[in-house]
Hints:
Elements (H helix, E strand, L loop, with lengths): L9 E4 L3 E7 H4 L7 E6 L8 E13 L2 E10 L2 H16 L5
Antiparallel strand pairs: 1-2, 2-5, 3-4, 4-5
Amino acid sequence: MGGKTLRLPAADISVSGVGVLIEERIFGAKPSGEVGLCRIDSPDLGGSIEAFVSVMRIRRIGSLNLVGLRFESISDDELELIREYKRKCRASPAAS
């Protein structure tokens, strides 16, 4: 977003998008609708996901913002990685 490369912890992921926790000062002005490339690397997913995302919503949580990123373009294979991850989480609540 805005030509920045950021490493952020994911708060949640679904087939429609990903939520990330971002310090308020990183984006400054509200970047609603801004589009960028998002890469998600996690051993829990069983592979990397790379997709174009747009800023869908921002919610304040203390000094952090929970930013909802909507997938605008993502492959079927990457969606399947997310579906499989969510199935594992439902089967083992301690894993989520």
